[in-house]
Amino acid sequence: MTAPELDSLRLLVLVGELGSIGQAAATLGIAQASASKRLSFVERRLGLVLLDRTRRGSVLTPDGRVIAGWARRVLTELDGLLDGAEALRTRHEAGLRVAASMTLAEHLVPGWIGELKRANPGLYLGLEVTNSDQVAALAREGKADLGFVESPGSLPGLTSRKVASDHLVVVVSGPHPWARERRPLTSAELASTPLVVREHGSGTRETVDAALRRAGVGPVKPLLELGSASAVRNAVIAGAGPAVISALDVTGHDLVPVTVEGVDFGRVLRAVWPAGRRLDGPAAQLLALATRQQS
Question: What phi, psi does 119 have (nearest 5°)?
């Protein structure tokens, strides 16, 4: 048995609601004669009498009421399918989900997003700020279209591209003894001193630990573990102790940089997205803005 056309099902439902083929036809913008032919065709296709046709109008037979009820459910499901497809299409065309680690979110990503929004005024863009491990997880799981991380480690399941270079700096408050020290600190002195640090999963924390290990003096000794770059910076300003933070975070704050010899605190900041996925639309545009100085 071949299924009736959807327009014929709509017509049958309207006849049941309005009690007239003529009113149902007018609602759909078709001629009454055409509507009557469609309904007769549906009856022949299903092998059922669906309408009692009288001079006072047309009413559904008991079989017609059952079929009309099923037809109404089919049309409701179809409307849901079409609405869902439209929502997906709109999300792909006009939405961008971005995740960024702290330093990138504070200093670099806003400028890239601003340029993207100026070129695409109707673009809806959501930005989630978290540590590098979480950014990578969001990108890997498809919960972010594009991520930006500071982590120096490998990123399984992700494609990455360099967007900027950064350098970490040891900083103290003005009254700290290191602020008056004229000679550079040694890597051993830094490693033996408890520091204000970010939490595990932070790209900055991972970079510091990796740099100290390469220098042969082991990972950092935590004095305080804090959940954001601004919290670390403010703790140093308040005199809690030294920290290693991005050079981008030093300017404009009451912090004293301290030179350390024998440790390389350079790092690469990267954009990430799921491996095997080709970026397009706003995500590709944002990546192009972020990487334009790297080409």
Answer: -80, -20
Q: Any idea which of 42-51, 77-86, 175-184 has the lowest mean pLDDT?
A: 77-86
Cross-strand pairs, 128: 99
Cβ(286)–Cβ(98) below 8 Å? yes
- Give the CA distances from residue 169 to residues 50, 103, 266, in Å, rounded to whole numbers and listed in that order: 81, 13, 9
Joined tokens for residue 281: 């639309």
Report the pLDDT value the prediction gives residue 35, as an integer from 0 to 100. 85
In whole angstroms, give the CA distance from residue 14 to residue 25: 9
Beta-bridged to residue 197, according to DSSP, are 225
The two structure tokens encoding residue 78:
């179809």
Torsion of CA 111, 95, 135, 197, to 10 degrees: 40
Strands (E), the chain: 51-54, 57-60, 95-100, 124-129, 146-149, 158-172, 185-186, 195-198, 222-226, 243-246, 256-258, 260-261, 266-274
Distance of CA 289 to the CA centre of its chain: 18
Pairing verdict, β 195-198 and 222-226? parallel
Question: Residue 85, Cα to own-chain centre: how many angstroms?
Answer: 19
In the numeric block, which tokens belong to residue 132? Answer: 């590098």
Task: Identify the CA nearest to 244 among candidates 259, 253, 252.
Answer: 259
Measured CA distances, 276 to 52, 158, 252, 273 (Å): 60, 8, 41, 9
- Reading the block at residue 119, the tokens are 């070129």
* pLDDT tens for each residue of 94-128: 589 999 999 999 999 999 999 999 998 888 889 99
Alpha-carbon span 275 to 157, nearest angstrom: 5
pTM: 0.67
